[in-house]
């Protein structure tokens, strides 16, 4: 049976992030993708204007439908929105013995709109982070999870990553895209030495869905049988190239999407 990656996340009506970015990433990397939708958002490149949370019973029904029939080799988790959704997803992962879980703790959108309620963060710490093979926070998300100020350098990034690691996950990939300087540096911390991934920072406003795309690309690598370090390395390369290729896109009047299909020359 063909191995499948599933994304558990919110829908982005503008197509740049969330479920849409995840499925584009899976397709671009040759992986079959399924989805469990946790929320519907009314949004465009300028921001989120409304959120409609999917009822917990329907999220559970999607879990049952997908996991009872498909060979789910990796799971990407994104926007969960509210505490009851976090709890429902945590129960579904345990019930269906999900493996290779990549948790992108989506708390605030690129536009600055909040996508996870404050009361849900404690449940994220206690119920979901311990389930994950890897958690992939950006700098603001790492600060929110740890209660610290925004990390200013790699040393502070490592300290916050280790605090998240102590919550029970096996690995933390803390992402430096929100930092400064000419490099965008991510640190993978877990078993063994700290692994540093660096890419030249690209000047573009088209960064909508970057975190979704990276976490989905990691999940795709795990489906292909890569170990985590190599899956992260290839995912970082994919996202960097998709950002660079996005400079040819003009979609909306705010931060636009990545060019997921740069290899084929198709529009994203």
Give me the secondary-structure topology.
Elements: E1 3-12, H1 18-28, E2 32-44, E3 47-53, H2 56-69, E4 71-77, H3 83-95, E5 101-103, H4 118-128, E6 134-135, H5 139-146, H6 154-165, E7 172-175, E8 183-189, E9 195-200, H7 210-223, H8 228-245
Parallel strand pairs: 1-2, 1-4, 4-5, 5-6
Antiparallel strand pairs: 2-3, 7-8, 8-9
Supply the CATH superfamily name: Ribokinase
Q: What is the level 1 CATH name? A: Alpha Beta
Low-confidence stretches: none
Q: Mean pLDDT score, rounded?
A: 93
Radius of gyration: 17 Å
CATH topology: UDP-N-acetylmuramoyl-L-alanine:D-glutamate ligase
Order of SSEs, N→C? EHEEHEHEHEHHEEEHH
Features:
9 strands; UDP-N-acetylmuramoyl-L-alanine:D-glutamate ligase; six-stranded mixed β-sheet; alpha/beta; three-stranded antiparallel β-sheet; 268 residues
Give an overview of the whole structure.
This protein is of the alpha/beta class and 268 residues long. The protein is built from eight helices and nine strands. The mean pLDDT is 93.
Overview in brief:
By secondary structure, the protein is of the alpha/beta class. Helix content is 38%, strand content 22%. The protein has helices at residues 18-28, 56-69, 83-95, 118-128, 139-146, 154-165, 210-223, 228-245; strands at residues 3-12, 32-44, 47-53, 71-77, 101-103, 134-135, 172-175, 183-189, 195-200.
